[in-house]
Amino acid sequence: MLSRYAENVYWLGRYVERAENLARLLDTHGSFARDPRATGDWEAVIRINADEEEFFSRNKEATASAVLYFYLIDPKSPTSILNSVGYARENARTVRHLISTELWAHLNTFFGEMHDLKRRDISLARLATVASFIKTNCQTHTGIAEGTLYRDQAYRFYQLGRHIERADQTSRLLDVKYRQLQSVEEDPGSPIDISQWNALLRSASGYQAYRRTRPGSMNTSDVARFLMSDNGFPRSICFCLYRIKYDLACLESEHGLELGDGLRAELEKVMEISGQTPADRIDPAWLHRFADAIQDGLLGLGGALGARFFGVAEAAE
Amino acid sequence: MLKRLNATTPKELTRLSKAVDRELYNLGITFTLYHEGSSVDRVLPFDLIPRVLTPTDWETIESGSIQRVQALNLLLADIYGEQKVIKDGVLPADLVFKNPNYRPEMVGLKVPENCYVNVCGVDVVRGGDGQFVVLEDNARSPSGVSYVVENRQLMRRTMPNLFEGMNVRPVLDYGLRLHQALCEAAPAGVTDPQVVLLSPGPFNSAYFEHVFLAREMGIPLVTGQDMVVENDKVLMRTTGGLTPVHVIYRRINDDFLDPEVFREDSMLGVPGLMRAYAKGNVTIANAVGTGVADDKGVYAYLPRLIKYYLDQDAILPNVPTNLCREKDGLQYTLDNLDKLVTKPVGEAGGYGVVIGPRASQRELEVTRKAIEKDPANYISQPMVELSVSPTLIGGKVEPRHVDLRPFCVTGKSTWVLPGGLTRVALKKGSLVVNSSQGGGSKDTWVLE
Description:
By secondary structure, chain A is mainly α. Chain A is 71% helix and 0% strand. Chain A is globular. Chain B is α+β, with helices and mostly antiparallel strands. Chain B starts with a helix and ends with a strand. The mean pLDDT of chain B is 91. In chain B, strands 3-22-21-18-17 form a five-stranded mixed beta sheet. Chain B has helices spanning 2-6, 10-27, 55-79, 84-87, 93-97, 145-158, 174-184, 207-217, 273-278, 296-299, 302-310, 327-335, 361-373, and strands spanning 30-35, 38-43, 46-53, 119-126, 132-138, 195-198, 221-222, 227-230, 233-238, 241-244, 247-250, 283-285, 322-323, 340-344, 354-355, 378-382, 388-393, 396-405, 407-410, 414-416, 421-425, 439-446. The interface between A and B is medium-sized, with 25 and 22 residues.
């Protein structure tokens, strides 16, 4: 397969996943923010995405409406969901002959609908609706991909993009909540604590699974452990990394591609970081360092993947 | 068909038509218009009422098109070979050597099967006397075939009952036929050729068509950056390393193919491609330098060239053409500007065409000055009364002018896609069918 196609499907997977997760993040934050006892700290969302410079170059204050505009439909913001869906569409357009007509047509329509959203459609009061609209469309995309993508190299690279992005985003979702909790007096089991973790789990669609696997427990450390290292939860960091390992192995065994030492080393490094979850109470400062290390590791992994298969290193010479 | 169409109310037709437009947009079956620096994706409007060609009509178009393709290929082999046609005084030397699309790099370079024009679009219209005549030959990178196939698929989904018992000849095998022809044109000795489609990339207005063709042929859609030339062989970058390429169906102009030979600033081509081509290690389709043969100036000589090479009369006649490069032609054109259609030789897409009887006095004066300044760049032709076809306009069926572009695919022999692209001028009375200027398209039915 052409290197460029591999890169395009990889980014197709990443951008759709990014859009979905950002919608989840905003949704969770929105439901926290509406709790009168919690802080409505929208700046946290900007910090966690490291978008301070971009955001404050055009906004004075991180109000709910400014942040929502910036992340949902701002055409000038490179990280807005509108742009993620747009980039996904551009990548899909380039590889249209590799993907099904349905996959393309849906993405094209989804982008059109995102494009039509106005400021009034994305007020805080309507956030749940618009977030659900975005999630549903991303999930429809995933479903069409699952049901129609031909299982060749393209599929593996698509999955790699998806899971690298998902692991990255789950680490950010955890981090943003922990940073907020640092500012709140921690009182495990208090109503505010429980309602926040509840919302976080729901936004990651992990509430039911968490309840089922950890009946009777709802504390900060257990929820964090669930999102970091549960082997059965498809959005946990650990799960994503296993999936990445599996898809890389398939590229090697089914398609005869050699991974090379650099890529292998990056994979081992990030898996080792993820394996260091403590069994007892998790300290917010530790969690923040952990999330950073995971994000760095994934960055290295993505870079090594590009150098090995997309000809990125070669082009940079 | 009429009975079935009559059974559908105009309201229902309009509803179906709107649904089709939406589907086209959602599927991204679009072309891109560039206007003042920004780009807009537009759907080529699709008219629901098919244009029907009888077997007899088609016989003429098909055999006439094949004849022209044969003559064009013989002409190109001659121009880049012995140049007998010039030595024999049939074609003026300056029409060849002063033509910006003449490529001296091609002289003496052998192409497989002596086929230069693997894909040819012959623009045909039906005049007032019912006869089909050729407006122009497109021997570089004719586009539009994707619409032929997509229009048929849309038509079958939208109005399946129209097809019942009609024996419409199929068009869906275009990709297979083209792939087969391109394989036949592979360099000698290559048994399982790797064919690729070379596109300028997603920002090209015809990118949808490139995607379509790559998909239909099951071949990689590449850009220049995906390929390299090593030891005069063309290779493409894949996830598993560099692998050989044998046939390049290119949808970029000659100028951009190889920065070592043509435009140095080209980012779209592959450095060294012409070296590999000259060594016979790769086939480029259409061949480099075909633009010298489909030029509006050479067009005027095609009936004579058919006689010269094939000893046949042209089955599809030309529109009589006055060459402003010649004294008589220039005088006649200037004397009859208000009755003639004038066209710049080097333009495509309907740009710069002035229809005398419909032009204002001022437009005619501007045209006159332009012709006097650079006569060799202009030709003129009498008005051809384009035939009309019933077309759905604002809920009513009205006559609108149409043309036809059949597609001829040549490997070892020539095959013509039954039908072709019917373009329709949606503006009342308009004769300009180009998509960039308010044209639409129709499904074209050739009956068994």
